[in-house]
Amino acid sequence: MIEGMSSRVFVGRPYCYDPVWTEAVSTFPQDVEKTVLALFALPDFVRSHVVQLLPAKRRLIHNRAKASDLLFPKANLEGTREQLTVQEFLYHNAKDKDPDVLTSRILLLTAAAFHNSSTAATNALFDLCARREYLAPLRAEVREALEKHGNRWSMEVIKVLPLLDSFLKESQRMNTQGFLQVEFNRKVMVPLELSDGTIIEPGETITMAAGAMAVDKKFYDDPSKFDGFRFATRDQTEAKTKTGREYTDTEPGNLSWGYGRYTCPGRWYASAMIKLFVGMLLDQYDFEFPEGQTTRPANKQLDVHLMPDFSQAIFFKVRTAD
Q1: H/E run at residue 302
Q2: Beta-bridge partners for 307
Q3: How far apart are CA 130 and CA 75, in angstroms?
Q4: Where are the alpha helices (DSSP H) in the chain?
Q5: Neighbours of 216 (CB within 10 A)
Q6: Which of 25, 184, 256, 267 could hold 208 in an S-S bridge, CB 3.0 to 4.6 Å?
Q7: Are 214 and 181 in contact (CB under 8 A)?
Q8: Neighbour tally for 171: CB within 10 Å
């Protein structure tokens, strides 16, 4: 669903439903990851020769070519469909209008948007299934906001859900992504001098202990406890005015959005999409783990990432009016 939502924004109708596009964008993150992992094991001087032989890389090129023909048909390279999409914006504003270049950018942006957002939404659903005491207050908040805004989802509704903001923020904190829960992996390209005089030489890698920071008492009270309303207060209006309370807010103990100069610029879009997705499920469906399961599955390690177990089953049932 999140892939479809992102594709609707990035390429619009009818392309977002086309099997050529859905195949290209859904396999893009995995093929990039497989290509990178394969090249990591090789010395620099052979990578450029080997990369074109890798099955994942060849599949990337094949899918990109098909997607490029779909999005920018040679008979109509102008592609003016008068839709407010990222594709249209890029085409009319990019200096390089080569279809393959534009398609690569669109694939990268779309895949990044739905990949990270689907991970956050899945973690939130797992946490809701495992901590069912949060369902009633969150559903009440969503229903109240919808009724005040004509029973239609809009940015006005999304902006007035402080309890959902808090729950998603806590789920994000407790499910920090990264190998051994580290974030912000960077390779130093030029000598870097820190404020204390330490010199980091080119070629070295730096990272941040995001997992340790997320459970550090310096940043959070009782940090090992999941408190879904940690970032809210009894007065929900007050919750919206305090620093660090909204889902998109950054703080020293949580690097999921990044921090400082490198804070994710697309977090407002991602937040709106995740809140819309989770909020609609809360309002329209009952959902739970299979009978007998009361705890969420452990996260899976994938190279340098921790991911939710996407093989976990969740049962949904349309809610009836209370």
Answers
A1: strand 300-302
A2: 300
A3: 53
A4: 2-10, 19-40, 44-50, 55-71, 86-93, 99-130, 135-148, 155-158, 162-174, 210-214, 236-241, 267-284
A5: 13
A6: 184
A7: yes
A8: 25
Query: Within 10 A of 119 (CB to CB), how many other CB atoms are there?
Result: 21
**Residue whose token pair is 């901590």:** 131
Q: Which of 117, 112, 72, 108 is nearest to 91 (CA)?
A: 72
Helices vs strands, H then E, count in the chain: 12, 8
Q: What distance in Å separates the CA atoms of residue 147 and residue 138, rounded to the nearest whole number?
A: 14
pTM of the model: 0.83
- 140, 297 contact by CB (below 8 A): no
User: Residue 19 and residue 25: Cα distance in Å, rounded?
Assistant: 10
For every one of its 322 residues, what pLDDT tens digit does the chain have, with 9 covering 90 and above?
A: 777 888 888 888 888 889 999 999 989 988 988 898 889 888 888 998 999 899 999 999 999 999 999 988 865 555 545 567 788 888 888 888 888 899 999 998 888 887 788 889 999 999 999 999 999 999 999 999 999 999 999 999 999 999 999 999 999 999 875 545 666 778 899 999 989 999 999 989 888 888 888 888 999 999 999 999 999 875 554 444 444 478 999 888 888 888 888 788 889 989 999 999 999 999 999 999 999 999 999 988 776 677 899 899 999 999 986 5
Secondary element (H or E) of residue 192? strand 192-193
State how far the Cα of 87 lies from the Cα of 6, in Å rounded to an integer. Answer: 12
Locate all alpha helices (DSSP H) within 74-154, ordered by sequence: 86-93, 99-130, 135-148
Rounded CA separation 178/208 (Å): 10
Cis previous bond, 265, omega within 30: no
Looking at this protein, which amino acid is placed at residue 182?
V
Angle between helices 2-10 and 86-93 in degrees, nearest 10: 30
What are all long-range contacts of 93-98, with beta carbons under 8 Å and residues at least 24 apart?
Answer: none
Distance CA 265, CA 220 (A): 25
Structure-token pair, residue 173: 């904190």
